[in-house]
Structure formats: C-alpha cells, structure tokens
C-alpha cells in the first residue's frame, strides 16, 4: 500500500487516472401532499463525454419493489411505461434542465400512487464504466389535510372604524409540520398585499404598506386557541378597501434541514367597503391691511375650513419669507424659532389658537425689518392607538406680503424754561391748584389716575398750560406730560415711548380740570406727582404772557408685585401603583389679580438621573408648552390652572416607571410693559416632591404539584404548566421550559416562549436535536401551557419544569416583567418497551436415517412490538464439543447467512429456511449425515427502532433444544450358500456360489471374497468326504478349535469391482461370475485332489455416505462348503486318443459351442451394464465377469484342451 499511493499520485498528475462518475439525487425520504407540485433534483459529476448529459427517471413501487417502472427520459420519448405515457405527453410530468449536468423532475399533480423509490439514471458517455450511474431516493405521498376556512360576507365600514376578521386553520398531518398564516388584501386585478403574517417560526411581519401601522399596534394578528387566527385593524383607512382573506401554508422539514411548503390553502374572502369621511379642508390667510408703520400692531389669521374639524387633529406652522416662525401641534402648544422666542418673551409677538378652525399670529410692535411675505401651513394628523401622531394631508394658502414704513414726523416736546412775568401793578393770577389721586398706594401694574383741579377767583382771564412732573425718591424731577395753552399734549422725553403705546395719557377733562393716567404702573412710577399750572393771558400786542403759575403735588407709593411671592408643591399621593393617577399641586402666594400673569413650569427628575428637565409650562398667556423630553407625558397628563388663583394642578394618569421621580414647580411672575412686551419680575422654586410608582402586587401562582411520568419510547411526552392565578386579566406570560439531568448541576433551557408569543430554542434543544420534536401550545383558557416532546427517546428522561414570567403592559405601552415563579417538577422516565419476546421451549428428540431431511422449528410465541425486527440464529452442540457452533443466521433485513459450522460440515446447499407464518421459522437440513448429529436450538434477537431512526437490540431469547441423532441403516445382510457339499472327479470343475439373501439398502454395494479353510498342523483335520452331519458337528466346536482353522483366499472382489490377486494354488484356474446383483459364483477348473477341503465366501456391504463417500456397513460369511476331488487311476487321455470318434467329440465339437456361449455371455454383459447402474464396477466394468477361455491345446493330442477363466483376464 505504501508503494501504491505514490504511483497513484504520479498517475493522477500525468492524467492517467480518470474521474469517477458520481450521480447524486435529492436526499429522501420526502413527504409531499396529494395534488401538489413536486420537484426532485439530480446531478451528475466526474463524467466524460459531452457537457450535456441525459437523465432517465424510474420508480420502484411499494407493491413491486424489485420491478422498475420507467417514467420519463430526456433522450428517449418512448421511455415511459404505459401508466405514465399520458401524463408525460400532457406535460404533467417533465424534466427541466437546470444545467448540462443537472436536471429537475417535475410532477405537477402528485397522486397517491406516485409514492415509491425514485431512481435517477444517467446513460454512460464515458470510455469505460467507472463510478455510479444512478441514485435513488424515497418519496412519500400523504393526504392533503390542511384546511383554511372563513365565513364569506361583505362588510360596510366607515373610515376610522375598527375591523375584526377570524379564520380557522387546522391540519391532521401525522408528520411533524409547522403552519404559517397570513392575512392578505386584494383589490380587483391588483397583486395581493400582505396585511400581517405569522411565519412558521412564529414571527409577526407585514408588508411595506402595513409595516408602520403594525409597529404602532394599529394592525394585530392574535391566535385564539389552537386553530383560530384573528386579524384586527383598529382604524380603517380608505386604502384598506378590498377583499380580505386568510392563507395558510403547511411546512415540513426535509432531510437536508430546509423547510418546504407542502401545501397552501386560501379561505373564503370578506369584502370590506370603507366609506371615507370628508377629509377635504381648505386654508386661507387673512390680515387687515398690507401697509403698516413702525410700531403698529399686525394680526394674521389662518382660517381652516372643513367638516368635523373639532374631532380632527391639525398642526399649524407659520413662516416669514419661507423661514419658520413657529409651529403648533394638535395640543395647541406653540414652539417658536429661536429668533422669535425673544420677541415673544417681551410680549411683542404671539402665536395662538383662537378656535378649532382659527389660528392667529400677532405682532404687537412692527419693525421695519418685518416687511416681507407671511404664510401658514396646516397639516392634518392622525392619532394612533398608542397616542402617537401620523402626518396626513398638508395644505397652505398664498403668501401675504406686508410693508412696514418708518416714522417720518419728529415730535419735539418743548417745555418752557422761563416765564415772562408781568411787572408789579399788572394783573395777577388768582388761581389755586389741587392734585388728587385714585390711591396713595397701588400695586405694581395697577393703573394710576391723577387729577389736577384749578380753582379761580372769578372768571379765568386766559388759558392754562399744565405740566405733570414726577419727583422720585432720589429727588430727580422728570416731565411726564405737557399740555400747552393751545391744547396740544406733548409727552416728556422719558415718557414719549410709553405715551405712544397709550401707557401715559393726559386729558383736559374740563376747562379747569386735567387728568393724568398712568396705566400698568411700574416701580419707577413711585414718587411725588406734581401738577404745575401756568396761566396765560394775551397782551395788548397780541402776545401771550404768563400771568402766574401754581403747583400742587401728591405722594403715590407703588408696592412691588414680587413682594411676598412664594410657591409650594404638594401631593396627596406620593406612592402610586402602575396605571393609577396622581395629582401635583403648585400653590402660589399671594393671590394676584387676573391681570398679573404667573407662568408655572413643572420640572421633573426621573429616577436614577441627576438633572431636572422641563416637563410642561403653563404660560403667562394661559397656553401650555411641553418640554423637549416630555413626549411620554403628553397623552396622559392634564394641566389645569385655577380661575380664582394662580395655583396649577398637574394630573398624571396611567402612571408608570417613566413618571417616577422628583417633581418641582417653578413659578415666574410677569409684568406686561406699556409696549405690550413682558418683563419677568421674579422666579420662585418650590420644594421637591418625590413620587414613587410601584408595580402591582403580583398574584402569580404556578402549580407546584409534582408528577411522575413513565412512558415507553416513541410516545409523546406531555408536559403541562398551569397558572393558577394571575395579577391581571391582561397578563401575558413568558414560559421557559427546563430539563434537569442527574449529571447536571442546573437545568438546561429547552424552549422559551416570550410574552409576545415568539419562540426561542434553548441550547439543550439545539444540542440534542429537539427542534423538530417540540410542539408548544397555549390553551384557550389562557392559563395552561403545554409542551409536547414528540417521539420520546430514553435520553429524554429527566426532571422537567417550567419557569413562568408574568408580563404586564405598562401605561406607556411597554411590556415589563412583574413576577416569575417556577412550577413543580415532572419526573419523566422514558424506557424501552418491556421485553415480551418469548420462544417456544419445547424439547425434542429426532432420530433420522442418513440422507433424509431434518426439520427444526423455531416458534416466536410473543414479541415486544409488531414493528420490531427479528434476528434468528441457529446453532448446534456437537458430541464431545462443549462450545456451540453457529449454523445459520437470518438477519433483520431477511438476509440468510451461513455460519462457521455450515462451511466446516459441508452444510452449504443443504440448509433451507422458510417462514410459513409470522413468528414461525423452519430450518431444513437436507441429506443428513452421521456427523450432523447434535443438539440444536435457535436464538432470536428482537430489534426495535429508536425515535431517532436507528435500530437497537431490545431482547433475546433461546428456544428449547432438539436432540438430533442421525443413524446409518440397520444391517440386514444375510449370506447363504446354494451349493451343497460336492464330490468331483479329478480334472473336473467345481462351483462355489455366494448368494446374498437380504441387503440393508438398495444403494449398497458388495465386496466378495472366497476362502479355503484348512486345519492348522496339530489340529484335527476333517475328511473331505465327511457327511453333512459330521460337518455340522464341526461347526459347533468351541472357539479354540476355530482359531486352528487356516484361511487361504482364493479370490476377492472389492465394492468398486476391483479384483484382488488369485491364491497361488488356484492361479489360472479360477473363473468369476456375477449371475445377478445378489448371486456371485466362483468356478475352480481342473480340480486336483489337493483342492479337497472346506470353502466359504465372505460378503461386505458398503453404503454411500451423504458426502458421496463409501463406508462398510457390515459383513457376513457363508457356511462352509465341503468339496471332495476323486483321484482316478486310468487315464482318460489314452481312452480318448485311442478312439477317433471320441477324440473329435471331445476336442473339436465343443469349440463352436463355446464360441456361441462366449458371444451370449458378452451380450448379457452389455445389457446388464445398461440396465442397472448399481451393478457397475470401477471405471464402468460390470460385476458380472466372464473370463475369456485360455485354450491349452496339444496338437499331438496327448491331452485334451483346457478352458479356464481367471480374474484379471477381462479388460
């Protein structure tokens, strides 16, 4: 071998070794359903010849597994047998070429009769046959039991209505299979759209048309019980209109590990008509004018027109020159761009929702840079079941351009610096001035009203000019307003802006009464208010002259708004449970009038964080503004401000972990300025409130009962996990199944089903290959879970238990694990079936002659399983051999094998086995021999299939023993003499006949020998001429006398017809004849007196053994025959020679007679050879011999011729 590998490598390099053809076919067995379309691939590699190979498909039917039935060929159109011809011609069976060396067999309408063993054969194109040219696989055709049913009807729904449809899916397939269920929608001739589907791996998925809605919970698929699948669409849309139907697919795992859809069924459809609501809306933008002056206010109104707008959700955004100003969602909380946030904080800009259809943008003080194009955009939004919004249709009107012009008139306030006083003796002023106010102490922000009354003595002489001045606490004097004599009002320098906004007004109420109004008072407005009145009269020259002046004042104190400003946070429920509600109160002191705005912001610090973030703000103008990180609060939080106070209550419903943490409210005190801007006067922060959100107290209880389960392998293991009580009717459960083996420290995970019904296989299932054998089921009751391990194996024994996790849906629609508990254990013992194998223990004894047949029977009285396979072994104990020897073995696949003993004892060909009925086995030993004797028995092994498909030996038993004795035939040989004692003359012949009276078998052969009996010296010698009575007396002599007899063989003939040597005294004088199969004759010629004596013949009987070998059965010797030869004194020769007539009679006449006799004897010889094969001798020489005569003729006639026959003279 070491030398061979290098040579082979060299040959491969030189190209001497050619590739080996290999045909591969799809691995079986494949399970397919009736009526389905099946493909089976076949590849060939390592071939020579053209690149395009041909393929021929055949089938071996179960009813005739040895008979090939041809189906289809790529090269021969006449290849199919008649039963397949029509299907091949109609295209229901065809071969598709994938490549030159690969093809697919298609059977479009599979039938039950198509089950069997398929063979793919590739005709040879190689120079020589080398490799495999065909491959086989098994195809199993099973009934199509999948059903998908639904009630067919038509539904009319309105947009936003919910839709629920159910479908029943069931199968009765015995093989382990998985189901996938899908709901589809179809409109007209369009391609169906998958709404939602549950895959064979229990994963939910949707097409792109429904993926977003499915992720938001708008579309659901729920399994109710074992066979009901419910589709739920919470908010129908016009695009959902169409026919909804359910499609079920049954999958089976092929031997290569891939999953194949065996069959697919569609249910009846439900036509759903969706009536759309009128969702059309229009948007227009309005403003009072297009031309403005700096400082003027402007208002833009975005008006929405449509049906049912209060029940719909809209978002509005404002834009200036295509740049975003602000946006407002359906919750009416405006979010301003950073550029406009400062103007909104100063009260110069406002974005608000006046009503469900009117949205307003107000600019209180226009700037010249505000010139440009303004617009609004309205987007309709749809609210999902989770509270999230989805954008729908969006519209915007035409832009509105405005122009803001600068102020062109410069107002200069002229306050007289000196007065021209008339000289003494002229007219003097007789007026007096009195100042009054509405309050000496006012709250910041309240209006201050001052009046200046002029009293005169008599009638006024001229006109009055009035100046209001303020002397603050630092004694700084400032002019507020001036009314000149012509009635023109001019504000002071520092009050000009406030006056332009109407914050300071001066008015001549009556000719002698002047009022000053300071609106929205400020802290700096505190001080001494002085009214300075100047009286003017017209001089002679027409000029106005001052007659006199008077002044009066009053002190006004202004209390700051932030005085006593404080905020406190309280809550009555510091600890709440999931889904409960809790309130937070932010109490603001003191009580401010409605004109004093206070903004309140609730801040929140989630558990586990270090920073607060703004949650929601109740703005100063009554709006609500949510923080950037408050999305989870919006749908569950209500904020309310008391009408009688500035207290703000925050109500949070459906509390969850998200709302657990520390809360704090921050209050800001605001003041509106004269220009409608806002100033934040003070900010106060409340105490901290910690809210703990606790999970519900679990009520989960799992059955702790222990079970012991003992079952036989291949049976299913049914494991139950029962939830006795649960916290909520809406609880979902994750169930983890474990198995604990004695050799393991901890349990190993088999299978996990999550709370959303997803499957996850554990490492134990992967390692042990359990995936295909596991089946999980949740019962309709909801609290019972079952795990079935199909086709249990002994290795599946162990302690099984389930670990149950209770999951609840938090208020923010996130699942959380509330509790977990472990069930009681189920001790599972999987054992092999109890051995019930039993053989008949009947003992037996058989005696049989050689060459006969022996029947040994092995009877199986009982077996463990009808599906088991039996191995039957026959063995024998030979005499004087303690070890048993195997005769034959019948393997499990019914293959007969010879044992060692069969080859040793030449039993091959003589053993025959048959089984006339199940469980009965008969072994026949034909042509038995003596060496076949022994004690026989059979041993039976019972093999069972394991769930994994392998066979194992379950039991064995040994039957009762049968003693077999093979005997040779009983010796029945008897020899008799038919020639009595005789007396003959000298030179005469005497005959010794040996007659066989009976034989042991017709197949026997004989060896014959003649003996001369002489008495040894010293013994008594009987006279040759003794009478019969004397001779009989000698036979009764004792054994000592028999030992004195000397035997001399005359002639012997073996069973194979071979002659022994002639005795020397008789050499040349003996003639042997077989007159019949049982009669032998020896003639002694030319007797002499010394031939006188006793003679006997001994016969040996030989029989053939079953092995065609001859053996001596017995021997028998005839009784002695006495022969006496007389001694004559005259010579016969002289008498004959003296008489011519007698001479010719004696010597010449006998020759023709002897010739005729010899011819007759030869004819008889040849006829006897043909008539009886049993009489043939060795090399075909008959046992009936005739010795050719040897003539001793003396031409001198001195002696007569002598005729003699002796053995060995015949060729």
TrEMBL record:
Residues in Ig-like domain copies: 6-138, 143-249, 276-386, 423-559, 579-668, 696-823, 833-941, 969-1114
Membrane-spanning parts: 1141-1164
Membrane topology classification: Single-pass type I membrane protein
Domain of life (superkingdom): Eukaryota
Compartments, record wording: Membrane
The encoding gene: IGSF3
GO CC list: membrane
Keyword Signal: yes
Protein name according to UniProt: Immunoglobulin superfamily member 3
Entry's Gene Ontology BP terms: lacrimal gland development
Region (Disordered): 1017-1045
């Amino acid at each position: 071998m070491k030398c061979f590998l290098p040579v082979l490598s060299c040959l491969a390099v030189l190209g001497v070794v050619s590739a080996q053809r290999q045909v591969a076919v799809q691995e079986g067995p494949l399970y397919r359903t009736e009526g389905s379309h099946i493909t089976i691939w076949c590849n060939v590699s390592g071939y020579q010849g053209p690149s395009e190979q041909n393929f021929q498909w055949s089938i071996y039917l179960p009813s005739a597994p040895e008979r090939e039935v041809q189906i289809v060929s790529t090269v021969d159109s006449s290849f199919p047998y008649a039963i397949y011809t029509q299907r091949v011609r109609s295209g229901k069976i065809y071969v598709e070429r994938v490549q030159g060396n690969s093809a697919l067999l298609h059977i479009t309408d599979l039938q039950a009769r198509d089950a069997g063993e398929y063979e793919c054969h590739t005709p040879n194109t190689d120079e020589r046959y080398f490799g495999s040219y065909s491959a086989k696989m098994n195809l199993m055709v099973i009934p199509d039991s999948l059903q998908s049913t639904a009630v067919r009807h038509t539904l009319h729904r309105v947009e936003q209505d919910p839709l629920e449809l159910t479908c029943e899916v069931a199968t009765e397939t015995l093989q382990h299979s998985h189901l996938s269920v899908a709901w589809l929608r179809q409109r007209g001739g369009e391609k169906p759209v998958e709404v939602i589907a549950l895959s064979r791996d229990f994963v939910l998925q949707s097409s792109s048309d429904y993926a977003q809605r499915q992720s938001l919970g708008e579309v659901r698929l729920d399994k109710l019980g074992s066979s009901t699948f419910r589709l739920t669409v919470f908010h129908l849309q016009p695009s959902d209109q169409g026919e909804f139907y359910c499609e079920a697919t049954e999958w089976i795992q092929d031997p290569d590990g891939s999953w194949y859809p065996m069959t697919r069924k569609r249910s009846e459809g439900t036509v759903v008509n969706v009536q759309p609501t009128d969702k059309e809306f229009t948007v227009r933008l309005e403003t009072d004018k297009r031309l403005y002056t700096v400082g003027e206010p402007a208002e833009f109104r975005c008006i929405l027109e449509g049906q049912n707008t209060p029940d719909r959700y809209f978002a509005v955004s404002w834009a200036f020159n295509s740049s975003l100003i602000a946006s407002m969602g359906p919750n009416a909380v405006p979010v301003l761009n950073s550029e406009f946030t400062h103007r909104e904080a100063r009260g110069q800009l406002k974005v608000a929702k006046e009503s469900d259809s009117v949205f307003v943008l107000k600019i209180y003080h226009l700037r010249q840079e505000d010139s440009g194009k303004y617009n609004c955009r309205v987007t309709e939004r749809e609210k999902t079941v989770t509270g999230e919004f989805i954008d729908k249709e969006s519209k915007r009107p035409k832009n509105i351009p405005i122009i803001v012009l600068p102020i062109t008139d410069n107002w200069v306030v002229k306050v007289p610096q000196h007065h021209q006083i008339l000289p003494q003796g002229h007219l003097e002023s007789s007026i007096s001035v009195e100042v009054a106010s509405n309050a000496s102490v006012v709250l910041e922000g309240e209006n201050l009203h001052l009046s200046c009354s002029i009293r005169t003595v008599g009638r006024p002489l001229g006109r009055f000019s009035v100046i209001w001045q303020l002397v603050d606490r630092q004694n700084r004097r400032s002019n507020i307003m001036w009314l000149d004599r012509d009635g023109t009002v001019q504000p002071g320098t520092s009050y000009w802006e406030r006056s332009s906004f109407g914050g300071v007004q001066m008015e001549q109420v009556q000719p002698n009464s002047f009022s000053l109004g300071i609106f929205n008072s400020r802290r700096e407005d505190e001080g001494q208010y002085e009214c300075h009145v100047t009286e003017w009269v017209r001089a002679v020259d027409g000029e106005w002259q001052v007659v006199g002046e008077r002044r009066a004042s009053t002190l006004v104190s202004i209390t700051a708004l932030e005085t006593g400003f404080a905020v406190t946070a309280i809550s009555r429920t510091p600890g709440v449970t999931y889904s409960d509600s809790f309130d937070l109160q932010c109490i603001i002191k003191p009580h401010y009038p409605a004109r004093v705005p206070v903004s309140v912001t609730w801040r929140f610090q989630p558990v586990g964080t270090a920073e607060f973030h703004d949650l929601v703000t109740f703005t100063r103008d009554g709006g609500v503004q949510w923080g950037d990180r408050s999305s989870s609060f919006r749908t569950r939080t209500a904020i309310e401000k008391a009408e009688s106070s500035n207290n703000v209550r925050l109500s949070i419903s459906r509390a969850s972990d998200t709302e657990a943490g520390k809360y704090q409210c921050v209050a800001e005190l605001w003041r509106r300025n004269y220009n409608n801007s806002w100033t934040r006067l003070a900010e106060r922060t409340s105490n901290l409130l910690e809210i703990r959100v606790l999970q519900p107290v679990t009520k989960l209880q799992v059955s702790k009962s222990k079970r012991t389960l003992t079952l036989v392998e291949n049976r299913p293991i049914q494991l139950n996990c029962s939830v006795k009580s649960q916290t909520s009717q809406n609880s979902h459960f994750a169930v983890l199944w474990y198995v604990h083996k004695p050799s393991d420290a901890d349990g190993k995970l088999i299978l996990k089903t999550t709370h959303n019904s997803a499957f996850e296989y554990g490492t134990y299932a992967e390692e042990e290959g359990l995936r295909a054998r596991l089946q999980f089921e949740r019962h309709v009751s909801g609290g019972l879970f079952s795990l079935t391990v199909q086709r249990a194996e002994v290795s599946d024994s162990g302690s099984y238990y389930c670990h149950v996790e209770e999951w609840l849906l938090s208020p923010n629609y996130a699942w959380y694990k509330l509790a977990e508990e472990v069930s009681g254990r189920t001790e599972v013992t999987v054992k092999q079936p109890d051995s019930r194998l039993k053989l008949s223990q009947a003992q037996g004894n058989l005696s049989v002659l050689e060459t006969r047949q022996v029947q040994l029977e092995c009877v199986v009285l009982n077996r463990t399983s009808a599906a088991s396979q039996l191995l039957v072994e026959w063995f024998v104990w030979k005499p004087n051999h303690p070890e048993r020897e195997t005769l034959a073995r019948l393997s499990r696949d019914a293959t007969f094998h010879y044992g060692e003993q069969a080859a040793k004892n030449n039993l091959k060909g003589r053993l025959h086995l048959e089984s006339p009925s199940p469980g009965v086995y008969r072994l026949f030993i034909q042509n038995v021999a003596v060496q076949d004797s022994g004690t026989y028995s059979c041993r039976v092994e019972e093999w069972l299939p394991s769930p994994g498909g392998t066979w194992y030996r379950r039991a064995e038993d040994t039957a009762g023993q049968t003693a077999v004795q093979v005997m040779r035939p009983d010796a029945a040989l008897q020899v008799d003499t038919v020639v009595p004692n005789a007396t003959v003359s000298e030179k005469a012949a005497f005959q010794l006949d040996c007659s066989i009276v009976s034989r042991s078998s017709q197949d026997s052969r004989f060896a014959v020998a003649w003996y001369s009996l002489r008495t040894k010296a010293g013994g008594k010698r009987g006279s040759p001429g003794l009478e019969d009575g004397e001779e009989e007396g000698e036979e009764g002599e004792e054994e000592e006398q028999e030992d004195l007899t000397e035997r001399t063989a005359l002639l012997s003939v073996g069973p194979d017809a071979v002659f022994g040597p002639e005795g020397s005294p008789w050499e040349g004088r003996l003639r042997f004849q077989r007159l019949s199969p049982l009669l032998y004759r020896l003639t002694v010629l030319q007797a002499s007196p010394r031939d006188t004596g006793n003679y006997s013949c001994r016969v040996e009987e030989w029989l053939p053994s079953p092995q065609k070998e001859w053996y001596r059965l017995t021997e028998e010797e005839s009784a002695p025959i006495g022969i006496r030869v007389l001694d004559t004194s005259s010579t016969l020769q002289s008498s004959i020679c003296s008489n011519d007539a007698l001479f010719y009679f004696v010597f010449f006449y006998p020759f023709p007679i002897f010739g005729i006799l010899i011819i007759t004897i030869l004819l008889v010889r040849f006829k006897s050879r043909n008539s009886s094969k049993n009489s043939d001798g060795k090399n075909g020489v008959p046992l009936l011999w005739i010795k050719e005569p040897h003539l001793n003729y003396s031409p001198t006639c001195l002696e007569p011729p002598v005729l003699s026959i002796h053995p060995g003279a015949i060729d």
